[in-house]
Each structure stands twice: as structure tokens, then as C-alpha cells.
Amino acid sequence: MSNFIKSYQANVGLNHTPAYQVSGQPFAEAGVDASSAASVDFPYVTRWFQVTNKGATSLKVGFSSLGVSGANYFTVDASGSAGYGVSQVLELKVSELWLLGSDDVDVVAGLTSIPASRTTTADGTSWSGSSGVG
Questions:
Q1: Domain total for the chain?
Q2: Rounded distance between C-alpha atoms, residue 41 and residue 117, angstroms
Q3: What pLDDT, on a 0 to 100 scale, did the predictor assign at position 119?
Q4: Predicted confidence band of residue 27 (pLDDT cuts 50, 70, 90)
Q5: pLDDT of residue 9
Q6: Domain-embedded: residue 29
Q7: Which of 4, 10, 56, 91 is 20 to 30 A removed from 79 (C-alpha atoms)?
Q8: What are the two backbone dihedrals, phi and then psi, of residue 20, each rounded to the nearest 5 degrees?
Q9: Tell me, what DSSP letter sits at residue 91?
């Protein structure tokens, strides 16, 4: 029984429900140049995030470098006469986003209290190498 960790001393992890039930700590990064692949690294796992594309070309958003250079990404429209291209608010637990294709991108997120290192696997950070991630 000496290896037993009392619940009040345990570190939070990806399945720690209370970390997702409260409002997220604010995070914003503006003016990211993703003309070539660029990452936005979060200090804590996200509760949610949203991407705004203010550039004139469409933007690929993925969860790994391989994802945006391959086929595991989603697209945010270019800005135009109708306004900026904006993704939906996505409730995903990630520690990084990869961006490719636009020279002016803003990312806003709500962060949990879970350290980003909790998403590191044998294949890399934020589920790199996983099916659907790349």
C-alpha cells in the first residue's frame, strides 16, 4: 500500500473531468505567419480553441507537422469581402496546433490546468503519429 497516492496529491491528467468543467485560462497568439508550416504550442492542454485566418489564402490546420503536410487537417477560409475566415470553437484536448498556408493567423484558446506534457506519446507530442493526426 506504500505506492498508493492520495487523491488530493495526485497530478491531473487527460481524463481529469473537473479540468474541463471550469472555464479555461485564456490564451491568445496573434499574427502567426504560417506561410510555411508553423506550430502554436500551448503551455497546458486546451479545453477549446478557435482559429482566425486574416490572410488572403486558405489555411490548413492540423495537429502535427505531418498532418498539415499530408491529409490530416481541416481548412479555414481566406479572408475576403465577407470578413475573416474563422473556424468553429473546437472542444479538443491538444497541446499544439500546426498551421500552413496563410501569413496572418490568430489563435485563441481556453486552457485546462493539465500540463502539455500529458499529451506526449512514444510517437511525439499531441498524439503525433496517431490515426487521423499524422
A1: 1
A2: 11
A3: 82
A4: very high
A5: 62
A6: yes
A7: 91
A8: -100, -10
A9: -
Cell digits of residue 113: 490546468
Give me the domain span that covers residue 106. 22-116
Q: What percent of the chain has pLDDT over 70?
A: 93
- Residue 49 domain-assigned? yes
Give the closest residue to 71 by CA, choosing from 132, 26, 3: 132
Q: Name the amino acid, one letter, at 24.
A: G
The better pLDDT of the pair 46, 20 is held by 46
Residue 2 domain flag: no
CATH code for the domain of 71: 2.60.120.770
Q: How many CB atoms lie within 10 A of CB 93?
A: 20
Q: What is the pLDDT of residue 85?
A: 98
Is 129 inside any structural domain? no
Kindly tell me if the per-residue pLDDT of 133 is higher than 70: yes
User: pLDDT at position 68, please?
Assistant: 96
97 in Cβ contact with 50 (< 8 Å): no
Q: Distance of alpha carbon 113 from its chain centroid, rounded?
A: 15
